[in-house]
Amino acid sequence: MDEQEQQAQQLPLPGAAEELPQEPVEDEEESELASLVGETLSDLVASLDDEQAEALLTTLLDGGEIDTLLFAQVTPQVTPTIAVGDYRPDQAVREASLAKKEQWRPGPGEVFYRASNDMEVYLGSPERPLDVLQAMKQIRQLSESTVLTARIVLGLWNTRRNNSRVSRNGSVAVLLEEILQWQGIQKHSREAHPGSGKRYTDGYRVEQKRRVIADLALLASCNVRGTSRVRVRGKAVTLEVDGPYLRYSVVSRKIGDEDKVILGFLVSPGDWISTYERHQNYALAEIDNRIFQLNPQNDRHALRLALYLTERWREQATERTFSTPIVMSELLAASMIEIDERHLTNRFVPRIESALGGLEERGIVGKCLCLTQIDRTQARWGKEWLTSSWEILPPLQLIQEYQALGGTATNKRTPRTRKPKGQA
């Protein structure tokens, strides 16, 4: 995130100062968004040959004729928590997005990442994976922002999928601006005139919109393959998946013979979701909206820890084993945090403990406690810290959410409808 974007996040909330909204004209803003989509997709396919570029763009832009009321009926709302998918493909894409590029492996005519759950992530399409040189350009663009965008849009998909007013053929309508709202990003504003207490808003910054569009395009380029062992009616069943992680299409309407404006995006998981649900296997994790508002740059360690802990708590909810400790080195590896061996005790340890403490202060973590006594007066206590055991509990509200779902979030197709409530 650059300096301008950080400044945008620090702007006062509406109501903090007297503010007079002055949104751009609708068609002008949507035309700008149409240009951003075109520019972003051009950057994405720059390393591809003509056939691959055409195939990818066709996949992304096949929205067709869609009732404009579909997007008019979308009511953006940021709730305290949202139920997101926590399937093996979700976990694999999180790890792949946060992995160092050196952790991707070359294969026959492709490059892939093998996650800790043995799922593989590769780029391109099942028919034509990207080769090493083509894939590396996109791999370098994967980041914490990509994971946040994935969790938000698929969380919204899960919430809206059974609402016929905002869904079509398995996809749901999502507005670009509501993704930015979930991330707590404030619209750019300016003074009405020098020395005035009134401010005007002229919408989100171009770079903020471009980042979301790029994230969606990258997620649509990710494919997942592998097998999962699940239990169906007491019997072990092997599920095989190989295909796109996420599908989205850009939906627009014409405003003239040549011009069109972007209405939004239709988003859905890939076909792998049907493979799981066909066997009555549902894996949903409740995620605190404050996680989405962590800064991918300044709160990088905290964000990576929080994303993994969300998955861990969902698994623990099945057996109600939230108090089971975890070894610090295992926590770091699962969170995709590289250990800084050279500055372990004087820089790395304080940063990780500060990140965990910050999550506890924000209420994202309920309790964080080191269960191992460490003598920090010794010269090499860093190794002892890496092998120490930690108890990291979710907040009480999250425990209660899982209890209300019967002890696990794996037996529900969609979350219960809840009225918005205050933060815990």
Describe the structure.
The chain is of the alpha+beta class and 424 residues long. It folds into two domains: 3-290, no CATH class; 299-415. The chain has helices spanning 3-9, 26-44, 50-60, 69-72, 88-98, 132-139, 144-160, 176-182, 206-221, 272-277, 289-292, 300-319, 328-334, 344-362, 382-386, 396-404, and strands at residues 81-85, 105-107, 110-114, 120-123, 167-168, 171-174, 189-191, 199-201, 222-232, 235-244, 246-254, 260-269, 284-288, 326-327, 367-370, 389-393. The strands form five sheets. Strands 2-3-4-9-10 form a five-stranded antiparallel beta sheet. It has a four-stranded antiparallel beta sheet with strand order 5-6-12-11. A three-stranded antiparallel beta sheet has the order 14-16-15. It is globular, with a radius of gyration of 22 Å. 36% of the residues are buried. Mean pLDDT is 82; it is low at 1-26, 61-65 and 407-424.
